[in-house]
């Protein structure tokens, strides 16, 4: 399912696809040196979301920096904030819920333990553009 969202601000209307949103989130994560990024398309196997972006950070400070970068970039480009955030104060796993796209920012230990890629392994892995 390709969904186009339209948000109206007082001075502008922004049109974008959910694919553009997840690629922007990946770019923002890369700007903060996130590691091991995986994008899964799960729209055919779940109604939870269309995409899951899973990235690693290597300290609690870096997790918050990655999260902040994603939130700021998506708000600046698409005038959209996450519907829900979880884990900002705990630091081992931060979740940003954008409705059709969910971003998981995890420490390597949590990522290995929960193994979301295996759990959602029946979804399609989407290649991400090469990091700069």
How would you characterize the overall build of this protein?
- The chain is α+β, with helices and mostly antiparallel strands and 132 residues long.
- Helix content is 33%, strand content 30%.
- The chain has helices spanning 18-31, 60-78, 108-114, 116-119; strands spanning 4-8, 13-17, 35-41, 51-56, 84-86, 93-97, 101-106, 124-126.
- A six-stranded mixed sheet has the order 5-6-7-4-3-8. The protein has a two-stranded antiparallel ribbon with strand order 1-2.
- Strand 1 and strand 2 form a beta hairpin.
- The chain is globular and about 35 Å long.
- The relative contact order is 0.22.
- Mean pLDDT is 88; it is low at 1-13.
* Helix content, binned percent: 25-40%
What share of residues are in beta strands? 25-35%
Distance between the termini: 29 Å
Q: Evaluate the radius of gyration.
A: 14 Å
Strand order of the largest sheet: 5-6-7-4-3-8
| Average pLDDT figure | 88
Question: How does the helix and strand content classify structurally?
Answer: alpha+beta
The secondary-structure element order is EEHEEHEEEHHE
Quick one: biggest sheet? 6 strands, mixed
Number of distinct helices: 4
Return residue spans where pLDDT drops below 50 for at least 5 consecutive residues: 1-13
Number of strands: 8
Taken from the alpha-carbon principal axes, the silhouette is globular
């Amino acid at each position: 399912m390709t969904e186009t969202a339209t948000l109206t601000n007082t001075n502008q209307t922004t049109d974008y696809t959910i694919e553009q949103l997840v690629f922007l989130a990946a770019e923002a994560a890369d700007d903060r040196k996130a590691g091991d990024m995986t994008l899964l398309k799960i729209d055919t196997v779940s109604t939870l979301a269309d995409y899951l972006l899973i990235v690693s950070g290597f300290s609690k400070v870096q997790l918050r920096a990655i999260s902040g970068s994603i939130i700021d970039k998506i708000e600046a480009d698409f005038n959209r904030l996450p519907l829900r955030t979880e884990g900002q104060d705990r630091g081992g796993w931060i979740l940003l819920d954008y409705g059709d796209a969910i971003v998981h920012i995890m420490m390597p230990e949590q990522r290995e333990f929960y193994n979301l890629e295996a759990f959602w392994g029946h979804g399609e892995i989407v290649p991400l553009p090469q990091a700069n």
